[in-house]
């Protein structure tokens, strides 16, 4: 009898985690449902070095909200604002506090995106203590922030930060955040520049269901990145968007949706756009924006366009106006 009971208890001990995982909380699905249309902001603004030289102004948060968007993804290069002991500059933190408050006051949800992806991908071992230090400080600072503030662990891991390395780094960083933010929605994507092709290689804690899985989409790359000086397509021009391209977009998004359903994870499209500083007709770029946006919304993915200012531009700060064909393509069916 005792042996039989021991075997039964051992069996139950093995089965209990499986039962717990079979009925996960759906916090991240609730978060995903609260987000719809977003835009990436402030990645390359002088604001972070000197607020007096900022291009982006507090009024732009209201402009974004009234323009048809309900969340922003704040692009942070925090490593540039750390001292030798990996402590974040108090002035930089004060600027971030103001930005988060201003955005929240304007009715925008906020994703804090740690964007030092090249540093981390080129030197993962050197990155790990910096990334953990960043999230330890940010997590403590924003532990009482509303649930509309999300933490994105790291943008676009790639290169030396391959699937195995990225999964290992996540296993170190997630507990740092969860120590002070057990209920915060995290945003995490796969390696290879947050590529949908690497979703199957992404390993997330099975019992942590408050994770919104992100991917970035710039396909066909020859179209979206023609003329970009930092790619091999710097001298490529005149590539048009074709019906085959549009069919590929639909197929790719169906693949991502199937992955999300199979893994019971909500999905965020964190970036997409076509480069603006080339001779591609704006009508093609607008059609691309609308095609991708519709594909995302068809599958229930909230999305964030890349980006408000700088390049792939959505808003002309000097002229104080939207690039209207693009904005119209993104919010045509709002409501």
Chart the SSEs and their pairings.
Layout: H1 2-22, H2 27-34, E1 37-41, H3 59-66, E2 71-76, H4 90-105, E3 109-114, H5 117-122, H6 124-141, E4 149-152, H7 163-180, E5 186-188, H8 191-194, E6 211-216, H9 221-224, H10 243-263, E7 267-271, H11 282-298, E8 303-305, E9 315-316, E10 321-322, H12 324-331
Helix pairs in contact: 6-7, 10-11, 11-12
Give an overview of the whole structure.
With 335 residues, the protein is α/β, with parallel strands linked by helices. The protein is 44% helix and 13% strand. The chain has one domain: TIM Barrel (Alpha-Beta Barrel). It is globular. Helix 6 (124-141) packs parallel to helix 7, helix 10 packs parallel to helix 11 and helix 11 (282-298) runs parallel beside helix 12 (324-331). It has helices at 2-22, 27-34, 59-66, 90-105, 117-122, 124-141, 163-180, 191-194, 221-224, 243-263, 282-298, 324-331; strands spanning 37-41, 71-76, 109-114, 149-152, 186-188, 211-216, 267-271, 303-305, 315-316, 321-322. The chain has 12 helices and 10 strands. Helix 4 links the parallel strand 2 and strand 3 (109-114). The strands form 2 sheets. It has an 8-stranded parallel sheet with strand order 7-6-5-4-3-2-1-8. A two-stranded antiparallel ribbon has the order 9-10.
Quick description:
The protein has 335 residues and is α/β, with parallel strands linked by helices. It has helices at 2-22, 27-34, 59-66, 90-105, 117-122, 124-141, 163-180, 191-194, 221-224, 243-263, 282-298, 324-331; strands spanning 37-41, 71-76, 109-114, 149-152, 186-188, 211-216, 267-271, 303-305, 315-316, 321-322.
């Amino acid at each position: 009898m005792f042996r039989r009971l021991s075997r039964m208890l051992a069996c139950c001990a093995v089965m209990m985690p499986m039962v717990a995982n079979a009925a996960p909380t759906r916090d991240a699905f609730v978060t995903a449902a609260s987000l719809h249309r977003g835009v990436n902001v402030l990645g390359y603004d002088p604001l972070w070095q000197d607020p007096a030289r900022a291009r982006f102004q507090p009024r732009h948060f209201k402009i974004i909200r009234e323009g048809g968007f309900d969340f922003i993804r704040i692009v942070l290069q925090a490593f540039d604002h750390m001292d030798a002991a990996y402590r974040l500059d108090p002035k930089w933190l004060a600027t971030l506090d103001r930005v988060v408050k201003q955005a929240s006051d304007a009715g925008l949800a906020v994703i804090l995106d740690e964007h030092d992806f090249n540093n981390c991908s080129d030197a993962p071992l050197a990155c790990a203590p910096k990334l953990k230090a960043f999230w330890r400080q940010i997590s403590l600072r924003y532990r009482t922030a509303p649930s509309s503030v999300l933490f994105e662990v790291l943008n676009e891991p790639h290169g030396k930060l391959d699937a195995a390395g990225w999964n290992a780094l996540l296993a170190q960083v997630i507990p740092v955040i969860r120590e002070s933010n057990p209920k915060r929605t995290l945003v995490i994507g796969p390696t290879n520049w947050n590529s949908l092709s690497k979703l199957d290689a992404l390993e997330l804690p099975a019992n942590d269901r408050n994770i919104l899985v992100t991917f970035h989409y710039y396909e066909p790359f020859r179209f979206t990145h023609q003329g970009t000086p930092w790619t091999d397509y710097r001298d490529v021009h005149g590539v048009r968007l074709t019906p085959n391209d549009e069919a590929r977009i639909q197929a790719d998004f169906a693949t991502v949706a199937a992955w999300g359903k199979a893994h019971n994870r909500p999905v965020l499209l964190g970036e997409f756009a076509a480069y603006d500083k080339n001779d591609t007709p704006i009508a093609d770029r607008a059609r691309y924006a609308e095609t991708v946006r519709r594909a995302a919304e068809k599958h229930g993915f909230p999305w964030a366009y890349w980006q408000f200012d700088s390049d792939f531009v959505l808003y002309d700060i000097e002229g104080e106006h939207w690039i209207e064909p693009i904005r119209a393509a993104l919010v045509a069916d709002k409501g």
